[in-house]
Structure formats: C-alpha cells, structure tokens
C-alpha cells in the first residue's frame, strides 16, 4: 500500500490519497490530526506527503510522525516535501504553523538523535533514518558546489523546498 498524505487536489498516481477535504478527490477522507489513522500497523510500503507537514504545529507534528511510524512497514520510506525554512514560501502562507521546517526539525524523529540532544524524555516514539535533498532556486544548480554551499547557508530563497526521506527502522 502506498499513501499520499494530505494529497489535496494533486493525488500522486499509484497512491491512495488521504485528505480531510471531501471535495479534493481523496480516496480516504480523514483528518490526519485525528489518531489513529484508518490503516493497520505496519501495513504501508511507501508514503508521499507534499506541502502538508508545515500546516501542523509542533505537537501535531510529533503525533503525525508517531502515527506515520506505526502504519509504515520496517524499511518503508516516506518522502516529505515542505517549504525550506529560509524560503519565503515557509512564511508567506498564513495557514503555515510555527516553526518553519529545516533538516534539524527531523532529528527529533530519530531515537539516537533524541539521546544526543538530551530530549529522550520528549513524548516521541518513532525512529526513522533520515536523508535530505533540496530544490534549489533557478540558476543555483549551475553554480560550483562550494558557491552553492555558501549560498545555502548565508542567503534566503536559495533553497525553495526541503525533501526529507524517512526510512522506518
């Protein structure tokens, strides 16, 4: 089973679309802030979620990740796409919630990182391996890698989207 969580009107082909709106053509109408989701434990092979997570606050993100972990099979991957924290897209939409999302936001969803950060007491149970990629602004991909790295760490609107791949441990 492959899920497109928060699919809106752009459900990914080959995926079961899940959204809270009955008007967007989702296959499953469900509010993803309401737990449990209508899927069995360890039943999902792949997840896609584009521009949904930024609409959740911190507590909702923790619950979302724990529920994501519950429904995913061990070794399953989830691609989560959000506006990058230094892009105007992260803050322009009044329905986006605080805080904006960076790579470091995901460290809380890895058990070893929670230990290193001394936050193992947080109410988070999930444990994902993490990998990241980003969508660069037009023209940035043509710069040499050292200049790209400098721009990413010093300039706004260099990276538009963060693409996080979470693998269930």
Protein traits:
single chain, 169 residues, alpha/beta, 7-stranded mixed β-sheet, 3 helices, 7 strands, globular
Would you mind describing this structure in some detail?
The protein has a 7-stranded mixed β-sheet with strand order 3-2-1-4-5-7-6. The protein is an alpha/beta fold and 169 residues long. The longest helix has 14 residues, at 58-71. It has 3 helices and 7 strands. The protein is globular, with a radius of gyration of 16 Å.
Question: What can be said about this structure in brief?
Answer:
With 169 residues, the protein is of the alpha/beta class. 18% of the residues lie in helices and 28% in strands.
Topology:
Elements: E1 2-5, E2 16-19, E3 28-29, E4 44-50, H1 58-71, E5 72-83, H2 111-116, E6 128-136, H3 145-154, E7 159-168
Parallel strand pairs: 1-2, 1-4, 2-3, 4-5
Antiparallel strand pairs: 5-7, 6-7
How many helices does DSSP assign? Answer: 3
> How many DSSP-defined strands?
7
Oligomer: single chain
> What kind of sheet is the major sheet?
7 strands, mixed
| Beta-strand percentage range | 25-35%
How would you sum up the global shape? globular
What is the N-to-C succession of helices and strands?
A: EEEEHEHEHE
SS-based class:
alpha/beta
The averaged pLDDT comes out at 96
> Which ranges are low-confidence, i.e. pLDDT below 50, for 5 or more consecutive residues?
none
Helix content: 10-25%
- Give, in spatial order, the strands making up the sheet with the most strands: 3-2-1-4-5-7-6
**Separation of the first and last Cα atoms:** 18 Å
Radius of gyration: 16 Å
């Amino acid at each position: 089973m492959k899920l497109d969580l928060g699919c809106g009107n752009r459900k990914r082909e080959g995926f079961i679309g899940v959204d809270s709106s009955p008007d967007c053509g989702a296959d499953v109408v469900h509010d993803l802030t309401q737990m449990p989701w209508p899927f069995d434990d360890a039943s999902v092979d792949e997840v896609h979620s584009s521009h949904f997570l930024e609409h959740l606050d911190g507590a909702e993100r923790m619950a979302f990740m724990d529920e994501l972990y519950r429904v995913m099979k061990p070794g399953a991957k989830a691609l989560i796409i959000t506006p990058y924290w230094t892009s105007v897209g992260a803050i322009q939409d009044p329905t986006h919630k605080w805080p904006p999302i960076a790579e470091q936001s995901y460290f809380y969803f890895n058990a070893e990182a929670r230990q290193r950060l001394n936050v193992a007491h947080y109410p988070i149970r999930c444990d994902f391996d993490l990998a990241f990629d980003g969508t660069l602004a037009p023209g940035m991909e043509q710069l040499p890698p050292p200049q790209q790295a400098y721009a990413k760490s010093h300039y706004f609107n260099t990276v538009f989207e963060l693409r996080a791949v979470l693998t269930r441990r």
